[in-house]
Design goal:
Layout lengths: L1 H6 L6 H9 L20 E4 L2 E3 L2 H10 L7 E5 L5 H9 L2 E6 L2 H13 L5 E5 L12 E6 L8 H5 L1 E11 L4 E9 L2 E10 L13
Parallel strand pairs: 3-4, 3-6, 4-5, 6-7
Antiparallel strand pairs: 1-2, 7-8, 8-9
Helix pairs in contact: 2-4
Bound molecules: S-adenosylmethionine.
S-adenosylmethionine (SAM) binds next to strand 2, helix 4 and strand 4.
Length: 203
Amino acid sequence: MMEGQIVARGIKDTRVLAALRDTPRHEFVPEALRDQAYQDHPLPIGFGQTISQPYIVALMSEVLELGGDEIVLEIGTGSGYQAAVLGRLAKEVYTIEIVPELGERAERDLARLGFLNVHVRVGDGYQGWPEHAPFDAIIVTAAPQQVPQPLVDQLAVGGRMVLPVGRWNQELVLLRRTSKGIEREKLIDVRFVPMVGEAQQTH
Ligand SMILES: C[S@@+](CC[C@H](N)C(=O)[O-])C[C@H]1O[C@@H](n2cnc3c(N)ncnc32)[C@H](O)[C@@H]1O
């Protein structure tokens, strides 16, 4: 997986490469699909949801430029795999999942595998997690049609936020908060499941 799919497609951050090497993706995939755990495509995890493809996990992790001291927010825990990778790259990870069964299962799996710095909450992530804000990095793994303003508001100065935006034609967008305001950069076209809940009522 690493050489063929991740390095070959341009991921260079050695900490990201090490985090992916050291995180057992098969532990976050349903047993019946474990033989496909290291192939470069998304896989179903139940409740109509998916675990993202490894290249996208690597790319989204890399653009957050994590050095190890950051407080990170993830919206869309899903299987817990992306949160586990982030747990190896940052100091604390706060992750929110709207489907209770997925959030509870991810919490159990993360605890069983020893990811003690990853904290899971069940709920709608649209409003973020204000008690732990501001965040040095925010990652959203479901697509809203517009960037949720409450998440932008919880981004620290110097912070990065990566998320898919759009309905059918989605773009992966990187936002940076500088002392002068928000900078926005389009990365690549992507296809994520929609962000549900409050995100669907605000456009
Ligand atoms: C592509 S999957 C996540 C993949 C996940 N990061 C992983 O590593 O397995 C997107 C997840 O976002 C969740 N989701 C959708 N809307 C949400 C919301 N408003 N708040 C929190 N989670 C949400 C979905 O239930 C789904 O589990």
